Every structure is written in C-alpha cells, then in structure tokens.
Fold these 2 entries.
Entry 1:
Amino acid sequence: MQSTDRRDFLKLAGIAGVTFTAGLFPGRPASAQRGADFHFVQISDTHWGYKGPANPDAEHTLEKAIVTVNGLAQKPDFIVFTGDLTHTTEDGKVRRERMKRFKEIVSELNVKDVRFLAGEHDAALDKGEAFKEFFGATHYTFDHKGVHFIALDNVSDPGARLGEEQLAWLAADLKQRKHDDRIVVLTHRPLFDLVPNWDWTTADGAKAIDLLMPYQNVVVFYGHIHQENDHMTGHIAHHAARSLIFPQAAPGNAPKRPPPPPFDASLKPLGTRDVAMGAKAPVITELPVTKA
Amino acid sequence: MNRRLFIALLIAGSAAEGVVRLARAAAPGEIEIQAMKFDFTPETVEVKRGQAVTLVLTSIDRIHGFKMPEFGVRTDIVPGEETRVTITPEKAGTFVFFCDVFCGDGHEEMSGTLVVEN
C-alpha cells in the first residue's frame, strides 16, 4: 500500500487551501465556501468528564465551541462527532451520566442533524453498550446530496478491530456503489498505520482500505490523535481533526507515546472544522474554540 | 496514597486471596512479564542480541494485550494463563511493547521497553 506523509499530501490531494477560520463568519470573505455543494462540521474527541491539567477549561470548552459553530455564517447541513464523546470511566453509571450530560450540552447546537461515532473511551470497556443506548448504532451509512457516508466502528472491540462481520457489512455496502461515487468514511481511529508503536492504527484497518481502494473518490475523516494530520494511502485521503480537550504529541516524535504536552492556549491546540464538499477534494477550514 | 504503594497493596491483597501464584524462578532463556492495570512488571527487559528468549506473559486482573510491532508480535494476555512468545533479536537497540487491549483510564500509558544488548 502506498503511503504519503503530510509534506506531499496537499500536492497529491489537489487541495487548494486548508484555511484557518477565514470565510466562515459573518462579514468575512467567503472564498472557502464558493462552489461547495454543502458543508458539514466535524467535532472530535470532546472527552466530556475529563478533569486534569491538560485542559484547565475542560468544563467549558465544548460549550464555547458550540457557540462558535452556532455562529457560522454558512450553516452546516449536519454535524458529525467522530468519537471519544466522553472520557473513559470503569463505572457504567458514571459513563451513562457523562453521556446524558454530553447529549444535553450538544442539544444546544442549532443544527439538528447530528451524527455520532464512538471512541474507545466511550465504548471499549462495555463493547458499545452504553453508547448504543444514547446514540444508536456504532456503524451505519447515510446519504447526503449525492455523497455516500459510511461510519465505521473501530473502537467497540477493545482490540481496535473492525471485525470480520463489520468488514463483510462494508463490502456488501460498497458493492452497491459505482466506482466513481463520492464516498466519505467517518471513523475514530486511523484506518492506516500512523504510528504502530503508539497504537495509532486499527488492527484490521488495512482490510477496510483494501475494500475502499477500487473506488475513485474516497475521503476519510477521523479523530483519536487530537491534531490535524493529512495522509494518503494510494488515492485515498485521510484527515485527522483536532480535539476539544487537549492536544497530543506529534506523531512518532518519541519511541513511546508521551503524555499530553502542557496546555498552551496560545498555540490554539483545540478546535473543530468545517468541511466544504464540492466537486473537487473537500476544503477543510479549521475553526477555533472561540471566535476571535 | 501514591500509585506504586497502592499497586503493591493491591497485589498483596490479591495474593492473600490466592489470586496470585507465588512467583517461580524463570527457566533459562525465559523472562516473566506480569501485566496489571496499567503497568508491565518488569517495565524494562534486557536481552542479548542473537539469543532466543521466551517472554512468559501473565495478567492478574483482566485481559490485556501485548504488542511489539518491530518484532511482529501481538497476543492477548488472559488471566490464569501463561502466554509464551519466543523472539530472537537480530539487532541491538531499544524496542517498545505496549498493551493494545483498551483497559481503562491509564491504558495509553501501559507500555514497556525491550533492551537488546550486543
């Protein structure tokens, strides 16, 4: 499988601009919006319930981000949360309390089409049981304005496997697609081996990529690593999003994965993103937690 | 209570209930590694380049994983069972092993180092 790192990514992906905030708020240039069929917003790794020095403002970050998303001049058609909605706990009662409170907070979003994926913090300790009670299925598809979205679950199995059953489901779904259909895959963990020594991978993710490879227009959006990252496996682009809780170390910058670096608000390590879907590659615009 | 003291007490408590077997001396060419949320003991394992060594893996609390990507090694560690992995390191250096079965808040730090000496 051919892999490409970030240095070569933009050129190969043909992305005209991965911009930062400009164009999405009232009164600002809207170049990033032109030509888009629709927009969606990706929010990832909110880890509701986390308390610690990696984010001194953890209790308010999600609410602030919701205000920012609600203020977008171009209202997104839908919003997707790509996992780790809540921070892990071994107490099933606390897990459900966190999910309940998380759901209450995000009900303040003024876009009502909201999709949820699980992360291992939500689902790995109970195989997704609590997540399903609050948010429904952990893998599913939906179609929006000519784009086929596939949400994959690589976290309910504590060994970070999609599993043969889900892979068969994916294969059956893809058989119904034409090879030039526009397909967006949503998932929590990277499907490819980003940093095997940090377990930043999906145990059987290569099987999913092999299934997707015959399709010409596939893009993957994921979370888990708490930072932007762009990567190509062949012609398939994979885009990781920032988190709303704390940043993680840059991929592979140490033999073992270091703990989260000290929080430094000046680095703007947290945020969400707008994705403009047009005829060409998606245009990603990173959004701050709070509008400047 | 600091974490190490807490873990020591937990092990002592478990041993009193007969959950933990007394450690036995490892056979020649064997190194025992015990997994428990969220540590491997020992955390650092030293071996010689070119010499086969069998890692004898046990868990005293729940299923953990043991993954060493640079050696193509990955296995579950199931409580009550010994899992044996034999490797022959061909080059000196330090190599990471870690738990790859999500086991709770601390899972991401559950790792160790294999040191291969000339």
Entry 2:
Amino acid sequence: MKLVIGLAAFVGVLVWLGIGLVVAQGPQPEIIVPAEVITKVGPLNLTNTLITSWVVMAFMILFFWSATRSMKLMPSGIQNFAEAVIGFLVGQVEEIAGEKNGRKFFMVVATIFLFVICNNWFGLMPFFNAFGKHEDVHHHVFHEITAEHPHDLVLGEDGHYIEGDGFGGWIMEGDGGLITAMPRTKAIEFEVFEGETPGEALDRYVVFVAKHFADFEATDEELEHPSAEMVAAAAARLDGNDGRPHILLGDAHAADDHGSAEAAHGLASPTLHQTITGIDFEGAKKFGLVIPLFRGTFSDVNNTLALGIVAFLCIEFWGFQALGFGYLKKFFNLNGVNAFVGILELLSEFIRIISFTFRLFGNIFAGEVLILMLTFLMPFLFVDIIYGLELFVGFIQAAVFALLTLVFAVGAVEHHGDDEHHEGHHGEDAGADAHNVHGAAAAH
Amino acid sequence: MGSWMVPTAYLLGIGWYFATCIILGVVIGRWADAATGFEPVLTLVGITIGLAVAMVGGIRMLLPFMRRFGTGPTE
C-alpha cells in the first residue's frame, strides 16, 4: 500500500512538473546585479527598486492612515490588526531594551522592521520582475562595437579591446513597449572579446544576428572565428527580406531614422570591404531585454546600504545623547590593551554598516535569483516551496535587521563596561534580549 | 516573535558579522597590496585585523548568550 502511495506521489510530482514546463515556464532570466534604470529625472537615475520602495511607502502610509482615521476604543477591522502589530512590536522592543529606552528606540526599530518586511513580501508578488520596458539591446550592442570609446571596454591605440571581459548584449524575443516577458523565451548573448578589433567584432556580430534571426547555419566555433566567406554569406542572408533584419550598408544617408544614430559610427568590415552603418530590425523579430518596472527593493545594494547608514547614524546619535562625549571613551582609551581594543571597536562600528548591507542584500537577491531560475527550470512545484521559504526569509531578515539595530542601540547607550559589571540588569543591557527570552533559565 | 526567533535572528546576525569582518580585511588588504606592491604583506595584515575585529566584536555580542547558557564567564 505504501509503495502504491509513494509511486502515486512520484507520478503526481512528475505530472505536475510536466504541466508546469508545458504551460507555465517563465522566460530564461538574465541575472543583472545593479538595479535597472527606468528613466532619468535630471541627473538622478530612477531605478526600478526605488520605484518599488515608493510604492511600498505609499502602501504603508495608506494602511496606517486608514487604520488610524477613525479610531475606536474597541478596535475592529484594520485598526485591530494595526494595533495588534504595533502592540506586538512595542512588547518585543520594551522587553529587550527596557521601557525607557524601548520607547525611545521603538519608532526607528519598528519602522525598519515594517519597511523591510513589507518590501520583502511585496517583492514576492507575481508582477515583480515580470513586466516592464523593452530595451533595444541591438542598438546598445552595435553602438558598443562601433563607438570610438565603448564605456565597458577600453580601446587600445592599435584599435584592439584591451580591458574588461567584453560587452554582453542580452536579447529576448517579444514586442516593443511595455511587455510581459514571453514564456519560454531564451536569452542569447553577444560578447566582445579581449584583443579583438571593432571590425572583427562587427563581422562576428553580423554572423551572430544572421544565425539567431535569419536561420543562418553556423556552429559555435564559426560564431567565434567566422571566415570571410561566412561573413559574406551571413550578410547576404540579411538582405532585407520580410521578417529578417537587414544590414544598412555604405553611405550614411541610406540609414533610416532607426539607424541614423548608428550611421555616425559606421564601421568598415574587414572582410566585406564595405562600411556597415547599422542593422535594421524593422519588421523583424525585436531585439531587447525586459527591464522590469518593479524589482525587490533590497535586491539593490544601494537601498540596503542606505538603511544600514540610517541604522548606524541612529545608534551613534542615541549613544551621544545618552553619554555625551563620554561615548567616545569606548573607542579612544589610553589604558594599555584597552587602547587596542577601543580601535577594534571603532572599526567594528563601521563594519556593522557593511555587515547590515550585505546580509540583507545577499539574502533577498539570492532569493530573487532562486525564484527566477526555478520559474524557468521547474515551474509550479518547486517554485511554490521556494516562495514559502522566501516568505520566511523575508520575515527573518526584517527581524534580524530591526533586532540588531535595537541590540546595538542598547549597547551604545550603556556606560562603558556595563556589560562586564552589570550584566543581566533587566531591560537595560545589550544581553537582556537573551535574558528575557530565556528568562526562566537566567540565574542571577 | 517566538521564543526561538530572537536568539535565531541574533545568532544569524553575528554569523554575517564574522564573515563581513574577515572578507573586508582580505579585500582591503588585497587592494592595498595592489596599490603599494607590498604583496602579500598587507593582505596578511588585513586578514589579521579582520580576524581581530571579528573576535572582539563577536565576543561582545556573544557574551550575553554564553552567560545565559552557563558556558561563559560568570560575574
């Protein structure tokens, strides 16, 4: 009987996976670490993670405004929920920091917790990383090859690329404008190699485009080192027939509006003995990379760093507020070995910012990558499990960030040496969290 | 937060703190070596300082826990 149930479960998993792969497979994700720029506002980049954080802020403001709009003595509905959340947080903070300090730290700690948890859970919504702008990657690739000073590569005096791993252009099928990533689309990448001249890169690019967009036969080896005949054959394939990209040759006036920007950077092909001013994709399959409009706020290291700096500044402010300039005695001490320990503690204060930053960024970014990859590789079943895990991780990371801010704050306001001499003072020391959680076990 | 949640979060945080201190020491040491040409002296100095900061900071964070569980130094 057990064997039958086990077999049925196994078959069920396989069927479920099969259905997922047939009907729900996501596009092949391209993992891009920096947040994508959606638009520019003056000199500032408006990134998708920033937009997400604003949406979350608006949601939080709206939520708490609704909860406190007409408060009743006997709360119900949304007010009840908000009071439960805030009451729980007040309890936790006071338990760890004591009533006096707890009230002082509460606003910052609770804000950090709620902001982080809302952002983490928002980032798991299905529309995240799913739709957005469709960036014309072909234009970027062509520009990088033909521009005199490509920004990702350094061009040597002899015209060879001498630095960098090469520019990679990612290409996805789809329509222009605001699109949803097409299921089962595969990303392909074009790379400029070190030591390659722009002309050689251009020749390879012609073969690359012909292979992927005009059914031109070429092996991987041939793509990397195409012969002159192969480049000519590939160029002939891109002859402007319907549904295929076509090469814009010779004089710059032949280029249409789409290619006019590239025309200025037209480049001589060493094998075709002609100048190529652009490749026109009008009417052909589009070349592009989906730039998602929404992306998890803390999958961007700038945002976690900003939050880490805010936490650091608050902790230092509370330290100075409580101890005045005596706070500095923790770090600057001329008493023997304590002088060395003080310097290490000072370093430790700053390392906390980095530790805060990469802890949150690493966890959230890794979760995002995991979900995107599994949506492509094993949709439905495993993604569900990982979503559950990510809900937990989102909560735990919010708790870690808020809790560590609180514990460091408690450490900052206590007098130097308090932890050695007055350990266990209820609610007044850095270790009180453990004391209170394991209160029954604590012996004084 | 459950009774296990606070210590879990706290210890997770300490783990990352250790890692950050050591990695930062190595990265800064490597950078300083590349800039000055003293390789590998400054990398070793960076690792040593990173370890020392991790140890001092880690002990300060862990002492309260060790006391609670009766494995740390008493008052």
